[in-house]
Amino acid sequence: MKMFLNRSKSFVHVSKNVLSSVANKCYKNFGLRTFASSSSSLKNSTETASNSTSSATSELLRNLKSELESHREMVKDQIEELEPKNVLDSYSNFLKEKNWTVEHVENSTLVTLKRRDESLQADVMVKFDVAEIFNELYDNAEEDFESDEVVEESEANEIENSVDEEMQFVTLPFSLEIKRDSIADKTLLFECVLEGDESQSGIIIENVAVIPTDASKQDTSYSAPNYSQLDENLQESFEAFVDNLVAGEELMGFVKNYSIASEAGLYQQWLKDVRSILKN
Fold this sequence. Notes:
- With 280 residues, the protein is of the alpha+beta class.
- It has nine helices and six strands; from the N terminus they run H-H-H-H-H-E-E-E-H-H-E-E-E-H-H.
- It has helices spanning 2-29, 39-77, 79-82, 84-90, 92-97, 130-147, 156-167, 232-246, 248-278; strands at 101-103, 110-117, 122-129, 170-180, 186-196, 201-212.
- A hairpin with a 4-residue loop joins strand 2 (110-117) and strand 3.
């Protein structure tokens, strides 16, 4: 999990400060004085604004380049954890045993695990968003870093270990869809959360809905009751059913690590795209 902590520190202490600094500069340089009444002051203000824009852009480009280079080095140093293919390889037994096929379109945040369940005569799909998962992990890390922002050097290792342990407990949202051959027009949708860590986790169901398989036909028809109002025995049965279907503990590790690895690539591409748009 240390590689995630490193990425968080980099993002909090570099990228956010860079953007904040540039924003403050732009605010100061593009004040009301830009719109002077005389043609002379208008010309001077326009030149000043142009120079300020150029200066702010140059600074932003320098810091974007620095962030991109440091991020590339981090990925290079931790290629085993930050390469999606390597994550797939490390979870190959889990994927093979459960017969999951992973579908992930390049540059997309949506990941789908799909398999055929013969006992249900249905297609089963688990879906999660790598950016949403990463942000959940990031927010967890940021809270820990902010609370321990200033520490004595002698205490650093102790606190880092403590943060690593605390961060292992997370809540990760995902959905489960079941589409039966005999009922092609309806899909059973479970909106869930994986809660815990890689060694011990549980599935919390937030909603169970019956929706039209064809998204264009979804309307305001009744699809689900308030899940919390269901009988406790029924809730427990639903949770046992879902856990058995998706193997919650192993799924937890895969979702977390694959999301971190995938987001690293997406973040790097975002940095490249921003630079390419702003560069002359």
